[in-house]
């Protein structure tokens, strides 16, 4: 689980960061995403405690926002953040399982500056639903889902564009004036209605004005225990709850055709799962092959000329958890005290450039490769990917072009075959456990980097 948003390729438009630990959200949270044209952001299940008003202000293409399952957030926090979204085309917001005890009327008002088409607030704890206010603020609303709650009181409202209304598993007592009065239908465009598990006790003329309705769910309502069918003749006298046909029974599709379709889809699904599993298993090999193909296409040749003018003396491969050691030890001794330039990805990679392109470019600009070995490093897929590229780059170089520094005791059994090959072909140094031995360690490393024997 991440506590920050890393750099992403410039072509990314959908960001799903659910299930992480972004507890504080503000504009700086997304500083690594400058230049991205994000249209969908999902931040569900992050344990978010606070959202600053300017958190999403620089996303000028944002169409959909999902903040579900962050119960610590208040509706006013969300309202303040939404109010400063700078994309007038913003259309959808999902706020499920927020456990709000009061209806988020302030959020309705904040959303009124946009043409919101979808609002989803499932599994919350407020009892009152003011559809009068909601319909006036969200005029263009097409889909409203507020199921799995405890709503018992509703003030009716007129929704001229609403096509989907989902209020299932609440405590609503639907009355005949809920959908309209003698002169006006409150939902003229409604085509899908879900009132499952509420408290409907009478359906006489209840849906009289819903001319476009083609999907109605009433199951788990007490009304179904009271009404009997009259037509068709074969259903005459049968309880309504038992006579509601399934979607398949309503279809004219032949059962054999249906079976064939299901079988075909099942086989296609199995093949897809097998292919996906193979791709996932070989994902790093595939990235490596793609890299070699791109290198070959660009006419890249391996470098063995010591007279080449390099920007960095060494490119450092390390795990994120070793960054403190890199900053306090390696950079302090090698760069600050010895004046030898090193390439550190957290500092020297170009923002907005594809990650693999940064690796290739910075390795080409470095005379040597330094690998910092630790327990976390041997488990990092990105480090192993960088290692493969480094091995390809250094095939024709002297052994001193490869330097491995072991900062933690890692046995060979815990190393991959490519990592063992790198260590065996590189100049190897183990970081001393005693502080008084560190001076000789840094002196030896400096000599190697300066090509002194």
UniProtKB/TrEMBL annotation:
SMART domains for this protein: TIR
GO molecular function terms listed in the Swiss-Prot or TrEMBL record: signaling receptor activity
Compartments, as annotated in UniProt: Membrane
Keywords per UniProt: Membrane, Signal, Transmembrane, Transmembrane helix
UniProt membrane topology term: Single-pass membrane protein
TIR domain: residues covered: 310-449
Listed GO biological process terms: signal transduction
Cellular component terms (Gene Ontology): plasma membrane
Transmembrane regions: 257-280
Matching Pfam families: LRR_8, TIR
InterPro entries: Leu-rich_rpt, LRR_dom_sf, TIR_dom, Toll_tir_struct_dom_sf
Family: Belongs to the Toll-like receptor family.
Protein known as: TIR domain-containing protein
Organism per entry: Mytilus coruscus (Sea mussel)
């Amino acid at each position: 689980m991440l506590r920050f948003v890393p750099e992403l390729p410039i072509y990314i438009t959908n960001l799903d960061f659910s299930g992480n630990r972004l507890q504080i959200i503000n504009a700086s949270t997304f500083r690594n995403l400058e230049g991205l044209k994000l249209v969908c952001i999902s931040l569900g299940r992050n344990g978010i405690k606070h959202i600053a008003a300017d958190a999403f202000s620089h996303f000028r293409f944002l169409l959909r926002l999902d903040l579900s399952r962050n119960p610590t957030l208040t509706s006013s926090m969300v309202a303040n953040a939404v109010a400063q979204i700078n994309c007038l085309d913003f259309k959808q917001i999902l706020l499920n399982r927020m456990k709000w005890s009061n209806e988020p009327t302030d959020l309705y008002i904040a959303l009124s500056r946009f043409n919101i088409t979808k609002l989803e607030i499932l599994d919350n704890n407020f009892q009152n639903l003011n559809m009068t206010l909601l319909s006036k603020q969200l005029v263009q609303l097409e889909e409203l889902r507020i199921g799995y709650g405890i709503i018992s009181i509703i003030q009716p409202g007129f929704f001229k564009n609403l096509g989907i209304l989902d209020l299932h598993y609440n405590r609503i007592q639907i009355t005949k004036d809920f959908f309209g009065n003698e002169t006006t239908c409150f939902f003229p465009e409604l085509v899908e209605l879900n009132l499952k598990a509420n408290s409907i006790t009478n359906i006489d003329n209840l849906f009289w004005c819903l001319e476009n309705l083609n999907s109605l769910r009433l199951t788990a309502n007490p009304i179904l225990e009271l009404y009997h069918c009259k037509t068709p003749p074969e259903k005459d006298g049968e309880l309504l709850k038992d006579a509601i046909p399934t979607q398949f029974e309503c279809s004219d599709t032949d059962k054999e055709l249906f079976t064939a379709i299901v079988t075909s889809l099942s086989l296609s699904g199995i093949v897809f799962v097998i292919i996906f599993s193979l791709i996932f298993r070989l994902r790093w090999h595939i990235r490596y092959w793609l890299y070699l193909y791109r290198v070959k296409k660009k006419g890249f040749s391996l470098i063995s000329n010591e007279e080449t003018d390099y920007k960095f003396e060494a490119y450092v491969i390390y795990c994120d958890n070793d960054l403190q050691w890199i900053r306090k030890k390696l950079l302090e001794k090698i760069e600050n005290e010895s004046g030898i330039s090193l390439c550190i990805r957290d500092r020297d990679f170009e923002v907005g450039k594809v990650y693999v392109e940064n690796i290739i470019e910075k390795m080409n600009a470095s005379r040597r490769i330094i690998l910092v070995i630790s327990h976390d490093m041997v488990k990092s897929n990105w480090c192993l990917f960088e290692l493969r590229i480094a091995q390809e780059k250094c095939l024709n170089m002297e052994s001193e072009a490869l330097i491995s520094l072991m900062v933690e005791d890692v046995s060979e059994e815990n190393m991959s075959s490519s990592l063992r090959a790198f260590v065996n072909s590189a100049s190897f140094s183990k970081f001393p456990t005693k502080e008084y031995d560190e001076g000789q360690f840094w002196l030896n490393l400096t000599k190697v980097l300066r090509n002194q024997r």
